[in-house]
Amino acid sequence: MAFATTHRSTLALSRQVNKNALKSLTATRQLSSDDKKHATPTSFATKCASLYHPSAGANRGLAPPIYFGSTYLLDDADHGARLHDKKEAAYTDQDGFVYSRWGSPTNEACAKQIGALEGVDQRGGTLLFGSGMSGITSALMSALKAGDHAVFPYTVYGGTHEFIKEFAIHWGIEVDFIDAAGENGPEAYKAALRENTKVVYCETPANPTCRITDLKGVGRVVDEVYGTREENPNRPWVMVDGTFATPYHQRALDIPGVDVSIQSCTKYLGGHSDILAGSVSSKSPEFCHGIAKVQKLITAPLNPMDSYLLMRGIRTLDVRMQRHGENALQVAKMLDEHPLVASTFYPGLENHPDNTGGDDCLVAQAFRSGRDSPEDASFMPQTYGGMIAFIVAGEGDLALERAKKVCEGLRVVNLAVSLGSVESLVEHPASMTHAMIPREDRLAGGLDDGLIRISVGIERASDLVQDLKQSLDRVMEEERAERAA
User: Where in this protein does the record say N6-(pyridoxal phosphate)lysine is found (predicted)?
Assistant: First the structure.
């Protein structure tokens, strides 16, 4: 009892001392502020050029405000010195900001929101970029230098492949491509690893084939060869582009051995075809420092307006992803039965090569459907994302022309690149998003000449099914008419 009384007395005295210190500090800051307060402008020209700010109570808006400022006021020269001397990090600290190329308030608020979705803890962070490709290239540039080796899947986004071929290899970086899909993927990665390997890159679900990479297996084999990051800080960085799944389905940083999660936020996280954005998240302070330096010196943070729009889009991500998945399953079932379709790749179909059944199959692991625990399955429906790939029947030029006609014949689905928006989009990879990849490499990655990719939106599912069916039927009817003539 005596100890409790003494503890309470000490705590009360400590609180009073802290209050007095806070009052003194506040008074000093107020005095300092008053001493350095700018003079009230009197001339017209100076009034025009002066900065006017709202009252202190204006910061109580529910939505985060948009900060467009490129530079920030400093308390004194020492304050500026501290800010310039600090090590790059994902987020600022209580000292505030110095220059928007190094980060800004709206950008940081959005980054923290995505970091929460990705499962980033206090050690790491999320950085936002002006596009998904800017995030990808910044992540790679932060980890690779001349003489290093990296492993990539054959089926990788066309822009990523182009960066590797047009830049990385000319900078003296050695690259191997492998078939990363399915249960054999981890061993394919393992066979490609070298002593100088610094990046193990995954894209899952793959764009556009929707094949799944066994991330648990990849993390395991990298640990087997190099040890965990705690054991070996020089271990390769395992990076995952999870744009197709989003954190709604796939939280890559929860998987042992995975270091970096990349999202093209232009797609599902933004969700409305009105911004370009990318995010890179990691629990590693070392990695966050490296990529923050790349962002500061070479690329740039996402601008304030797009950061705001991205935050607004994320608010509906959960409900949008459910609708995308419900619609896509109906569309995939129709495509799978159509006579002009040779193959349909959708994780929700039983014939998907990575959907082998059971809770441990790769599809089940990759699609969490917004669930936070196994118990959520009792009331949250299982969905499989909004991306579908299918191959029209035929070979070579015949398949190529058929695929183009199917895309061009759609009247509800929009012919456009990109994906993940509320409206449905269709594209033909061989002539559009992956046209820069040599045909032999494209075919090795499963990107056939007749492959079509659909991003299923949140329209009425029956409208989408009918639109795709009429376009497929029309191509068949036109070919019959040509043969009859």
Answer: 267
- Sign for the CA dihedral angle at 291, 295, 298, 299 comes to positive
Q: Do the domain assignments include residue 224? A: yes
DSSP for 413-447 reads: SEE-S---SSS-EEE-TTTTTTTTS-HHHHHHTT-
Listed in sequence order, the residues at least 6 apart from 436 whose beta carbon sits closer than 8 Å to its beta carbon are 158, 161, 162
For the stretch 102-112, pLDDT in tens is 989 999 999 99
What is the count of structural domains for the chain? Answer: 2
CA distance 357 to 364: 8
The whole-angstrom separation of Cα 275 and Cα 259 is 27
Helices (H), 315-361: 317-337
285-294, 425-434, 447-456: least confident range: 425-434
pTM for the whole thing?
0.89
Strand partners, 388: 454
| Coil/strand/helix, residue 211 | coil
Q: Are 442 and 330 contained in the same domain?
A: yes
Q: Residue 451: helix, strand or coil by DSSP?
A: strand
- 462 and 406 belong to one structural domain: yes
pLDDT tens across 306-345, in order? 999 999 999 999 999 999 999 999 999 999 999 999 999 9
- Count CA within 13 A, CB hemisphere, residue 364: 10
d(CA 364, CA 354): 9
Q: Tell me if residue 206 falls in helix, strand or coil.
A: coil
Task: Answer whether 419's CB lies under 8 Å from 425's CB.
Answer: yes
